[in-house]
Amino acid sequence: HGAVYLIGYAIECWTKAYMDSNGIAWERKGKDPVTGRSKSHNLVYLLGRSGLGPHIYRHPFENKFVLTQWNVEMRYRPDDFVGMEDEAQGLFGAGRKLAKAIKRRLI
């Protein structure tokens, strides 16, 4: 669980670094009108705003990671993947692949 959360946070940070280094403005304090969650932690918003998504997350596990599984509040829910080790490993692998793809665009 912790690894899935942290790799999602890495995706968030790398995407923000990508936007900042390329002069792409993004809302640091705005809320999503649908979910009420902060846009600055929303991977769909960040990847879309950066121009990196959704084409960067085409694999089913990557898509699931970005669209439905990862959110900043999961750090407070340590039991999200209890009994779902294969799912957690698949999501971590997908998140790791995404983080690397974004990082490569920075270098």
Provide a concise account of the structure shown.
The chain has helices at 2-21, 43-50, 60-69, 85-106. With 107 residues, it is mainly α.
Any key phrases for this structure?
4 helices, single chain, mainly alpha, 107 residues
Question: From the helix content, strand content and strand pairing, which structural class follows?
Answer: mainly alpha
Anisotropy-based shape: globular
Rg, rounded, reads 13 Å
What is the distance, rounded to the nearest whole angstrom, between the alpha carbons of the first and last residues? 29 Å
Portion of residues within helices: 55-70%
- Provide mean pLDDT, rounded: 86
Q: What is the tally of helical segments?
A: 4
Largest sheet: none
Order of helices and strands, N to C?
HHHH
pLDDT under 50 segments (min length 5)? Answer: none
Number of strands: 0
Percent in strands: under 5%
Explain what this protein looks like in three dimensions:
The structure is a single chain. The chain is an all-alpha fold and 107 residues long. The protein is built from 4 helices and no strands. It has helices at 2-21, 43-50, 60-69, 85-106. The longest helix has 22 residues, at 85-106. It starts with a helix and ends with a helix.
